[in-house]
Amino acid sequence: MAQLFEDTVLKFPVLIGDIGGTNARFAILTGPHADPKEFPIVQTADFATIDDAIQTSILDRTSLRPMSAVLAVAGPVEGDEIRLTNCPWVVRPKTFFGELGFSELIVLNDFEAQALAVVALGEPHMEKIGGGTGEALASRVVLGPGTGLGVAGLVHAVHTWIPVPGEGGHMDIGPRTERDYAVWPHIEQIEGRVSGEQLLSGRGLVNLYRAIARTDGKEAVLTTPAEVTAHALDKSDAIAVEAVEMFVTALGRTAGDLALVFMSKGGVFLTGGIAQKIIPALKTGAFRRAFEDKAPHSHLLSTMPVYVITHPLAALAGLAAFARTPALFGVETHGRSWSA
């Protein structure tokens, strides 16, 4: 795998971008040893296309002229029209050359970038949520509730860290407790099913809040994830408190499932703004109980550490590490790399 990437050398300056359903974050890396020059966060809803956003928010505001770009997008990377799952933007790589002036473009899945960040960032940017000590070269898994639910694995082989992207956020998630069975029928479905994203995302938290209110015949007065989180943490709304508790438990169950899939003895890493905001709720014990409740492998799960990545621009840190030294990472670029 490492042999495939020895000839991958990006031309500096390199534009790096982490593009989610709601926000897009960009920076320019001027050289292999330089710190990224960061730009203000872009709201995807403010621009009709990604091309407009890059031109207006980046290129028009700096004299730096990026030669290459490495973008991480929230959705599967396929073909010459890459559609984001929770955003109307479409990445058309060939327009980057004529209209924006780039000579090279690599497009990755956004959680590949988050997986790379696990290697690029150190302990100062992580908050531990129980478990033992992770094995240095063991497999890892990254998941993050945000606009959607992102999932990626990270495995080490032939002296190389290899990110494993996927769409694990769309796995089914079902009820477990008697209370779950009462609430689940009121959760908004997509074509008859409840996926991880329908619970473990910003809108998922609101879905849970509304479903609990309907179950108990009460009025759902809160309408945004931020409101639900705030009222839960200060315990001013009983429905919000239960919604966050159910969210944390479901996140623990899902994280534990993925830890078993990847045998994540190197750790499980939670990323994104929601995880950072609910660290106090994650530390109450409900998350770890759900994470470890995996008989007959409960003891195995109890040894696996879980971390919340607290760096505000973790994906950009991962992309910067890749842009500096692509050969150190087993990132498959076939079909995801374009040049002028």
Uncertain regions: pLDDT < 50 for 5+ in a row?
1-6
Question: Would you state the CATH class of the largest domain?
Answer: Alpha Beta
Structural class: alpha/beta
Give the biggest sheet: 7 strands, mixed
Please give the alpha-carbon distance between the first and last residues: 26 Å
The total count of strands amounts to 15
Spell the H/E element sequence: EEEEHEEEHEHEEEEHHHHEHHHHEHE
**Strand proportion:** 15-25%
Count of DSSP-assigned helices? 12
What share of residues is helical? 25-40%
CATH domain topology of the largest domain = Hexokinase, domain 1
Q: What is the radius of gyration?
A: 20 Å
Broad shape: globular
Number of domains: 2
CATH hierarchy: architecture of the largest domain: 3-Layer(aba) Sandwich
Mean pLDDT, to the nearest integer, reads 92
Description:
- Keywords: ATP-binding, Cytoplasm, Glycolysis, Kinase, Nucleotide-binding, Transferase.
- InterPro entries: ATPase_NBD, Bacterial_glucokinase, Glucokinase.
- It is a single chain.
- The protein is of the alpha/beta class.
- The chain has twelve helices and 15 strands.
- Strand 10 (140-145) and strand 11 form a beta hairpin.
- Mean pLDDT is 92; it is low at 1-6.
Give structural attributes.
Glucokinase; 12 helices; 32% helix; six-stranded mixed β-sheet; D-glucose binding; 340 residues; alpha/beta
Care to give the gist of this entry?
This protein is of the alpha/beta class. It is built from twelve helices and 15 strands. It starts with 13 loop residues before the first strand and ends with a strand.
